[in-house]
Every structure is written in structure tokens, then in C-alpha cells.
Amino acid sequence: MVFKNIQRIKSALPEVFHVAMFYNTGTIFQTTFEQNINIPKLGENLAELLTHVQKVYEICNFKMETYRKFIFETDDVSIIIIKLGEDSNLALFFKKEEEKDLKLTSIRRYLNKIEDLIDTDETEILFQELATREKELKIIEENFQQKQQKILDLQNQLRVNTLSEAEIGDINKIIKNLEDECGLLKKEIEQKKSENLIITQKIESKKKIT
Q: Distance of alpha carbon 75 from its chain centroid, rounded?
């Protein structure tokens, strides 16, 4: 969802005075908040909020694979957090006006309208998620390749006849550690590729529907 669509939410719901779209990692990628607040810290705390709710469910032995929405109501400001895509979320901040008491029942009436607005841009959200994930995958793959190259360089060093047994032992230890790290990175790469494939399939599925 791009900034124009955040403005569309605000136009459709005048009671919303701020919007923040953030990834599960806590990175805010669209918001109406200005730089006079700590936006990275806001994203971090919003993500932690979701994590804490997840932990509450786990402690109570309740099952929560994902969530649809959370509503937090206070006297002055109420917040709705809505699940967007695999890794993205939408936080809406409602401020109570003097002449209008914004209660939970009122907020719930807005949810259908909000979700309708979100649905129209779901494919775009998926594209944004995929682009972010592809960047993350590229960084991991580059890290993997760098470690692989280090292993090759160290293996070439072992061919030098002037090395002492101690030096050979140290190099072998480094190679072993690098190989272990590469093994973990390879698994992470495979997992990321699998997740990206799922998102790609969702995008293709939505294209067929439209």
C-alpha cells in the first residue's frame, strides 16, 4: 500500500489521525507520523506488542498461528492493528473528539470499511513484501558466497608446504566453523526461497481472479 492509499484511509475515516504500516521486524515502511517522533522505536514497540500477545496465547496454551486484528481502547486514543500480508501490519490511531465519544462499538463499525480498503491493495502489499524479502535473500546469498570463497582461499593456503602443524590445525578449525555457518545459511536461503515462492503464487492467484 503506497502513501496515497494511506491518505485514502484517512479520507474515508476522518476519526483516524495517524496511520503506520510496519513489518513484523518492526520496520515502518509507510506512516503519517512526522520525524519529530522516534519512528524506528514506534515500529519496534508495535512489533513487540504483537510478539507479547503471541506469548500470552502460548502461556495459556491457546493456538494462534496468525491474527486478524487487535483493538486497544483508552480514554483518549484507540489503536487498531490489522494483519495485512505475511509480514506486514497496519496500525490505525483514533483520537477521541470532544463532541464525539469514540468507543469500541464505534470502532468496530469502521472495520469493514477499513478491510475493504485494504483488500483493494492486497496485491500491491504482496509485491512490497516480496521485494523486501528478495533483498533480504540477496544479502544472505552474498554472505554465503563470501564464506564459500573464504573456505576456498583457506584450502589453498593448506597446500603451502611451509605451514606448521599448529597453523594447519588453526586453518582447519576456521574452515570447519565456516562450513557450519554455510550450512545454516544454506538452510535459511532455502527457507526464504520457499516463502518467496508462496508469496509469488499468491500474487499470481490474485492476478487470475482480477
A: 30
